[in-house]
């Protein structure tokens, strides 16, 4: 019943991937129009403009994928749009005098695990920071923010004092012993906490990362909430760093679910986010000078996942190296360079015809690392690829070098698009692995709520619905199932949890940046080139990249064609990694 760790698949990955790909369509258009223009690998491509016209394929996928957060919601629902879902777990946390009713159920079960849930929040926040403009253009920003806050509200409640964090709600044995809807569950839901005596640096640091990233997301819309998140993040990081240990050592039972291999990757990840959120130099020094050599595994590319945050940290810190800042010391810059070099190795491993290309792929071209949750690595990798390619575009970086061969941002985006397209149906099974998307998608998702009719009275033992040969009565909208075998096949059976379970931590986040172009005023469905580049104005201008003094991070303030404060300059307010003119240029 999917009680092993690395269960289900990763819904949120798809969202970021799709959003990212909205822009890809635009790049393709550029390449077609100007054969060889920028395609010769060594000439930098134009800086992207604002989101282009929505590619309806990806825009629709984004809308579907985000619904999975609603499907997974615990607590008293607000504006619920999933007809078969209702309030549940309202008394979670009561035994500790806390309200832990919010948060998201982990997968096809009703456990709430803080570790993967916080990871979901961190990457969701990251994708909003990078691609919020694309999400907004596709009218999907509000659902993303709503989902993010549903998790961060839980994290705030789960951190009642400096050195205490609740890391689990529910007992996996009791939970997996039942097949029932969350709305009707009656079994006990005990709490598990980490503290000074029973530490869990992996979970505490991931929660710190999530809250630091989310504090940036909410900074402009809700300063108070953003400040609260940042305070929690800083305290959790101190707790994680001071009282070190793995949560699965404190609680060996956790090994059967999310058995984190190490906590130092989470410490670096959290400190990197805290540096972006605060600009406090001590966090930068922590990840570079103090701990980089010992912990960061420079030079060794790995797979980004709920367990291994290193590749995420490498790409995130590349951002600082790409955009630069006067306040960073030489020693720190050297550390950043090592992170970026490792990020580049990760990217080189993904591009299919690169000399460093990983052999871990299916015949259909999907990155494939493990049988459980096979889609998680593909979506995670695609997300990092698209983010990295956007950093390159924004800084007019022409190419990455992989053992002597050069690859442009377009090559990197093509890889990301290939993963998204595979997941959305361009695969040997001709099946969309995103439930609710397209004409053919899995009908037997391993998911308690989706498999039981909303009016059924099952008690704990509704296992006839697990074993039934019938399609689920309810559609688990936005669920990204575990995914195909390495031979590209998929068996759509509820009992086959390895392939048909979907997990909250694995969500299609990389779908955002696949474009929309409000300035061009075009109808949706027609991919267009970035406006700036099509006007031919930016190709001759080198953007001057500056970091705002007060905010070393998102967004970098990018100025095109002049120095900061120079009246003649064309201010490019990048939406995070993207840079576009706020006046003049587009209508030149
Ligand atoms: C959990 O991870 C630890 C350390 O990597 C390993 O020794 C242990 O065998 C793992 N437990 C399970 C159940 O896989
Ligand atoms: C594909 O791989 C799975 C898992 O290894 C195996 O059970 C199945 O028989 C294979 N299918 C084909 C058509 O080779």
TrEMBL record:
PROSITE patterns: GH9_2. GO terms for molecular function: cellulase activity. The keyword Transmembrane applies. The chain crosses the membrane at residues 12-31. The active site is at residue 446. The keyword RNA-binding does not apply. One of its GO terms (biological process) is cellulose catabolic process. Keywords: Carbohydrate metabolism, Cellulose degradation, Glycosidase, Hydrolase, Membrane, Polysaccharide degradation, Transmembrane, Transmembrane helix. It comes from the Eukaryota. Residues 58-505 form the Glycoside hydrolase family domain. InterPro entries: 6-hairpin_glycosidase_sf, 6hp_glycosidase-like_sf, Glyco_hydro_9, Glyco_hydro_9_His_AS. This is Endoglucanase. It comes from Urochloa decumbens.
């Amino acid at each position: 019943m999917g009680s092993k760790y690395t269960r289900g698949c990763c819904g949120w990955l798809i969202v970021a991937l799709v959003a990212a790909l909205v822009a890809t369509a635009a790049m393709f258009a550029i390449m077609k129009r100007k054969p060889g223009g920028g395609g010769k690998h060594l000439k930098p491509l134009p800086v992207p403009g604002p989101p282009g016209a929505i590619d309806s394929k990806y825009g629709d996928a984004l809308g579907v994928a985000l619904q999975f957060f609603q499907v997974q919601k615990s607590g008293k629902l607000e504006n619920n749009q999933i007809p078969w879902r209702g309030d549940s777990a309202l008394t979670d946390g009561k035994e500790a005098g806390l309200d832990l009713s919010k948060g998201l159920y982990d997968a096809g079960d009703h456990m709430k695990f803080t570790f993967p849930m916080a990871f979901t929040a961190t990457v969701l926040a990251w994708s909003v920071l990078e691609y919020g403009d694309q999400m907004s253009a596709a009218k999907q920003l509000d659902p993303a923010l709503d989902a993010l806050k549903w998790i961060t509200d839980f994290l705030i409640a789960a951190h009642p004092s400096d050195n205490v964090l609740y890391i689990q709600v529910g007992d996996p044995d009791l939970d997996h012993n039942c097949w029932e809807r969350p709305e009707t569950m009656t079994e006990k839901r005990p709490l598990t906490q980490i503290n000074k005596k029973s530490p869990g640096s992996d979970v505490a640091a991931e929660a710190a990362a999530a809250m630091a990233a989310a504090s940036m997301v909410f900074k402009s819309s809700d300063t108070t909430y953003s400040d609260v998140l940042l305070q929690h993040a800083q305290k959790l990081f101190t707790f994680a760093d001071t009282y070190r240990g793995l949560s699965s050592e404190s609680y060996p039972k956790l090994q059967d679910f999310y058995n984190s291999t190490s906590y130092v990757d989470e410490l670096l990840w959290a400190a990197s986010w805290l540096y972006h959120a605060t600009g406090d130099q001590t966090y930068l020094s922590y990840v570079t000078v103090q701990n980089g050599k010992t912990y960061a595994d420079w030079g060794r590319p790995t797979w980004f996942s709920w367990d291994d945050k290193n590749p995420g940290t490498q790409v995130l810190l590349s951002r600082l190296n790409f955009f630069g800042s006067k306040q960073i010391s030489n020693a720190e810059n050297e550390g950043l360079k090592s992170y970026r070099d490792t990020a580049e190795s990760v990217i080189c491993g993904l591009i299919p015809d690169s000399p460093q290309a990983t052999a871990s792929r299916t015949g259909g071209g999907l990155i494939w690392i493990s049988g459980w949750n096979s889609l998680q690595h593909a979506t995670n990798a695609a997300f990092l690829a698209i983010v990295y390619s956007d950093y390159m575009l924004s800084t007019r970086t022409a190419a990455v070098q992989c053992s002597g061969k050069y690859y442009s941002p377009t090559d990197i985006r093509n890889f990301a698009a290939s993963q998204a397209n595979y997941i959305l149906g361009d695969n040997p099974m001709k099946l969309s692995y995103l439930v609710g998307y397209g004409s053919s998608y899995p009908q037997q998702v391993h998911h308690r709520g989706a498999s039981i009719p909303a009016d059924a009275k099952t008690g704990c033992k509704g296992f006839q619905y697990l074993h039934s040969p019938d399609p689920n009565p309810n559609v688990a909208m936005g669920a990204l199932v575990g995914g195909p075998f390495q031979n590209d096949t998929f068996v759509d059976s509820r009992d086959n949890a390895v392939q048909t379970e979907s997990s909250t931590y694995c969500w299609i986040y990389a779908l955002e940046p696949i474009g929309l172009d409000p300035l061009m005023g075009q109808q949706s469905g027609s991919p267009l080139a970035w406006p700036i580049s099509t006007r031919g104005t930016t190709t001759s201008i080198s953007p001057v990249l500056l970091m705002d003094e007060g905010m070393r991070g998102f967004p970098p303030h990018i100025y095109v064609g002049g120095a900061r404060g120079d009246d003649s300059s064309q201010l490019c307010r990048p939406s995070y990694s993207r840079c576009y003119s706020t006046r003049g240029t587009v209508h030149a």
